[in-house]
């Protein structure tokens, strides 16, 4: 039983050591991965916005074309009505045709007004598209620079990181699922990523709270897995003090 617990604690310490090295590699990268992701999300947003503006401009141009055709149709009708006016038999027919002509002219005026409004909206959209494309181009340049910077950092540590990940898989494979799950949960909840620590100078190596002598003796015996009563970290050993 004693050797089994000891081997579990050794495996946990090995895993913690590997994870700490991986944490350091990621720390060197700083916020670059998040910055790259944020820029990619921002660029995607700009691209969607430009696409939306393009669709709106296309819709406005289609509306202009339809209204221009409506004006041409109205002009044809007006000429037709004017020809009919030459052959009316009474004032009633003349007045009716005159009203139709006035109605078509009114429709033409409304269409012309709508066309002017559409052209104004297109100018506004084009300005917005140009401004958005300008910001999009700037962000793309920023993204290229960030990716290049991140790529250089990753390349420098890629071989080491690959080896560490392989070692980590091997170390994790020696730990039972329940204990591995607890280890992962503790790592997620502590700021420095240290889930497994030793007692140093009579204190927890994670939160630095004092560990009583009897508790230290239990930890050193490695007969069971013991956690710090203050921070919940796994206490895997007691460092001997050198005087």
**Shape estimate:** rod-shaped
* Amino- and carboxy-terminal Cα gap: 33 Å
CATH class of the largest domain: Mainly Alpha
Give, in spatial order, the strands making up the sheet with the most strands: 2-1-4-3
Helix content: over 70%
What's the number of extended β-strand segments? Answer: 4
Low-confidence stretches: none
**Main sheet summary:** 4 strands, mixed
Mean pLDDT: 93
What does this structure look like?
The chain has five helices and four strands. The chain is mostly helical. The chain folds into two domains: 2-25 and 176-238, Helix Hairpins (Orthogonal Bundle), CATH 1.10.287.1490; 31-172, Helix Hairpins. A four-stranded mixed beta sheet has the order 2-1-4-3. The relative contact order is 0.14.
Secondary structure elements and pairings:
Blueprint: H1 2-29, H2 32-85, H3 91-172, H4 177-189, E1 196-200, E2 203-204, H5 213-221, E3 226-227, E4 234-238
Parallel strand pairs: 1-4
Antiparallel strand pairs: 1-2, 3-4
Short description:
This protein has 243 residues and is mainly alpha-helical.
Features:
5 helices, 6% strand, 4 strands, Helix Hairpins, 4-stranded mixed beta sheet, mainly alpha, 2 domains, 243 residues, single chain
